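Final report, Chapter 2: Outcomes

The project's central promise was a pipeline that accepts a single protein chain and returns its three-dimensional structure in a standardized token representation, suitable for archiving and comparison. That pipeline is now operational. To close this chapter, we reproduce one record exactly as it appears in the project archive, with the input sequence first and the structure output second.
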Amino acid sequence: MERRLIRPRRLRTVRSIQRMLNHGQVLYLRLEAEGVRLLPLAARRAIAKKIQSSPEVDVVVLTEGSALVIQVKSVRLELDVDLRKLERAEDMIVSDSEIMRGTPVYRGTRIPVELIADLLSQGAKPEEILAGYPALDREKVELAPLYVQAFPRRGRPASRPWAKRKPIRVTRHGRVLAG
């Protein structure tokens, strides 16, 4: 985006500006992650332009003959599967200010999605998580890391654990030093 290879639509909200990507732009970003970013800028522009002009293209040929061919179809199919998983995760997860201060939780429960994703990242097996949280099923557990990666928490932590503690010591100038 910084090199203006793709131009997302901008949507102004109350406090910020959101960038909205269409399917072709997301496909190009996935190609960038797969290795297209290693190509020269002119070649990357040609690929982005070809995908924008015909989003259903299966192969992008950059040179005369077949010296450099970009397979787009397989990446598009993987992207479609991942987007369907993300839609499914969004249907399962709710974020309401009345429920745990807006922390994303599984619909109908008070189980935070970030907790499950953290447990998985620390090496917990899905079977162990399911034993501890019987309200969940295997699909919900497997989609937690995808949701957390797609929708990271922003801003400061909700609570300040240090706020209610007494200072450890006070300097002779009256300043408080913690630890």
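Archive annotation: The chain has two domains: 1-71, 85-154.
This record, like all others produced under the grant, will remain available to the consortium after the project formally closes.
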